[in-house]
Design goal:
Largest sheet of chain A: 6 strands, mixed
Structural class of chain B: alpha+beta
Largest interface: A-B, 23 and 25 residues
Oligomer: heterodimer
Radius of gyration of chain B: 26 Å
Strand order of the largest sheet of chain A: 2-3-1-4-11-5
Largest sheet of chain B: 9 strands, mixed
Strand content of chain B: 15-25%
Number of strands of chain A: 11
Shape of chain B: elongated
Structural class of chain A: alpha/beta
Chain lengths: 211, 389
């Protein structure tokens, strides 16, 4: 048999919502992904195997052809670019919004604004489009802390319910993008294994439509 | 700077060591011989040129890829070539200026300011062939066949040939009547075959035009897509049918000469859309995300040099080819010759070298490790004896 098709999944919340979707498309891992320490998983379809990795690594794996297909948040694709990839499907899972947020009642006081975020490229583009000069500070977590400690004026972050923001005296401001998970495909895999890939896209589209 | 990092080369810049260098050079010679046999004449364009001639017509990407500096003699801006194609176009249009069909080929190092894709070399060895002065599909077919012959000679076994035509998107865009801003978003989404982003880009576009553009997403796959394309385009964008017919003609011709090659059609392929004017093609190998070779028609490229010429051609990167297909050239053992100036020995060495043997003079204490035979004097004659390990 030919080499199985490798699908790279994003760890964490996205994985929890991806597995039921895959199950509806007829693909189930042969063992429990959450409890296993393995990195590669065989599935009920012997021509498909799964790897579970960090979201930021998924486009890298797929771009290089180490994986043929991937499931990744749109935020990662917006931040790191999606050149060299096909992005045929919105899976409609792990929905949230990418927003700017600031302390309640905040208003701009000068020509520049300090922005803390882990999405530095998105933040730079967003503020440039608004005609605002932003000094972007890259942080890896707990964005809400930055304005409180006067490290930044605003933050750019993923907002789900907004509870964390409110608990820290902040409010969401502008919406930058709606985020959900996307299916991405390696360009060479799309060509060389057109039938299998296209069939998989259709099954997943149908499964996502049931959401 | 300490000795620790003195040896370091810039990111994406690599040297080719003996074992690989021999393969790269072998392949280069073999391919240039192949092009010679197909009637393509070799040209050797310079490493640097004025940017005015170097950056013609091939879009903004090339501008960003090109290292630039000021020419101290003229004060004009020089570029180190990031692509050899514009140079060859200049040679055809201006330096040669021959009427009729001109076939040219080249091989040389180029330099990129940044890698074209992740892990790509910034100093590829570009090798390619161009056909000028013919606007028929026969020219495209010949170039595609030469591209397939190139990969075959390099030992790439399984090739998928990608065929597209910029005329399809052009006609659809003209029929859909979108604004330049909308077009930028549509182009971006189509390039990524992103249905959700394309739907978003089409929100302000009237339904029939939007459906036509959405239909482009489906136009990739095997030969069946040509029928799908005709159904979609006949009424809505009839100008595109010429392009569909061209794809069919070329695919039929390739199937005749290369029955084993898989052809994949992508009617919405937008690679190089801003400078290609007709057929676009690429060759992919399984497990390799980037095309191994690509090309297409780019008519009128010589216009800025005073002679608009039809043109089609392809290029590949020798280093990338070699990385994919590790050919190992079997090296038969060399002959060791003693360090003596005996005229009879010198004559024997010359004769052996003429016969294709590698003869290495023994200058140190022991013969070069590549040697498995040695020249020894027996009865006033130099003869070959096996060298004991």
């Amino acid at each position: 048999m030919a080499q199985p098709l490798t699908m790279a999944l994003t760890k964490g919340r996205i994985l929890q919502e991806t597995l039921p979707l895959l199950a509806r498309a007829g693909i189930e891992p042969l063992e429990d992904i959450h409890s296993s320490r393995k990195l590669i998983f065989a599935t009920t379809r012997e021509d498909i195997q799964l790897v579970v990795i960090r979201g930021t690594d998924v486009p890298t794996y797929v771009r290089h052809g180490a994986a043929d297909i991937g499931v990744v948040g749109k935020d990662i694709l917006l931040e790191h670019g999606a050149e060299g990839l096909y992005e045929p499907l919105d899976l409609g899972i792990a929905r949230c919004r990418l927003m700017t947020a600031g302390p309640v009642g905040w208003s701009a006081s000068g020509a520049r604004v300090r922005v803390a975020t882990k999405f530095v490229n998105i933040a730079r583009r967003h503020f440039a489009a608004q005609g605002v000069h932003a000094d972007v500070i890259k942080l890896y977590g707990a964005m809400e802390l930055a304005p409180m400690m006067n490290l930044a004026d605003l933050i750019v972050d993923i907002v789900d319910t907004g509870n964390t923001l409110r608990a820290n005296g902040m409010e969401p401001l502008d919406e930058i993008a709606h985020i959900s998970s996307r299916l991405i495909v390696n360009k060479a895999s799309m060509r060389a294994r057109y039938r299998v890939v296209q069939d998989l896209i259709e099954r997943l589209a149908a499964a996502a439509g049931d959401n | 700077m300490t000795t620790v990092d003195r040896w370091q080369l810039p990111d994406g810049v690599e040297e080719v060591l003996p074992r690989q260098a021999r393969v790269v050079e072998h392949l280069r010679r073999e391919l240039l011989d192949l092009y010679h046999q197909w009637g393509y004449q070799l040209v050797i364009p310079p490493l640097i040129e004025f940017t005015e001639s170097l950056l013609i017509g091939l879009g903004r990407d090339l501008d960003l890829l090109t290292f630039k500096m000021t020419d101290q003699l003229s004060g004009r801006t020089l570029g180190i070539r990031a692509d050899i194609t514009p140079q060859v176009a200049r040679i055809d249009a201006h330096s040669l200026a021959e009427p009729g069909v001109t076939r040219l080929c080249y091989a040389g190092s180029t330099l990129h300011t940044r890698p074209k894709s992740l892990l790509a070399s910034r100093s590829p060895i570009q090798l390619g062939a161009e056909l000028y002065g013919d606007d028929s599909l026969a020219g495209d077919v010949e170039i595609i066949r030469l591209m397939l012959a190139t990969l075959n000679a390099a030992g790439v076994a399984e090739v998928t040939l990608d065929l597209g035509h910029v005329g399809v998107y052009e006609a659809v865009l003209a029929a859909a009547n979108v604004t330049p801003e909308q077009e930028a978003d549509v182009f971006d989404a189509l390039q990524r075959k992103s249905r959700p982003d394309l739907l978003l880009a089409l929100t302000d576009i009237a339904a029939p035009a939007a459906e036509l553009i959405l239909g482009l997403l489906e136009l990739h796959g095997d030969a069946a897509v040509l029928e799908t394309a005709r159904r979609l385009l006949t009424k809505a964008a009839p100008e595109a049918l010429t392009a569909v017919a061209a794809l069919e003609t070329v695919a039929t011709a390739i199937a005749r000469s290369h029955p084993g090659t898989t052809v994949y059609f992508d009617l919405a392929e937008l690679r190089g859309y801003h400078y290609h004017t007709g057929m676009v093609f690429a060759a992919y190998a399984p497990g390799h995300g980037q095309a191994l070779a690509n090309g297409g028609r780019y008519n009128d490229v010589g216009k800025v040099f005073g002679r608009a010429r039809p043109a089609t051609g392809f290029a590949t990167d020798l280093k990338a080819l070699m990385a994919l297909v590790p050919i190992s050239l079997s090296a038969p053992g060399a002959v060791s010759a003693p360090d003596s100036d005996d005229p009879a020995l010198l004559a024997a060495v010359t004769a052996l070298r003429k016969g294709g043997e590698v003869v290495i003079r023994c200058v140190g204490k022991s013969p070069d490790p590549r040697c498995d035979r040695m020249l020894v004097k027996a009865d006033d004659e130099w003869v070959l004896r096996p060298l004991k390990p």
